[in-house]
Amino acid sequence: MDKNLVFEQLKDRVEKVDTINGTLKFVVDGNSIYIDGSGEKNTISLDDKESDCTISVSSDVLEQMRDGEINPMMAVMSGKVKISGDMGLAMKVQSLLS
Question: Which residue, 49, 55, 39, is CA-closest to 93?
Answer without folding.
Answer: 55
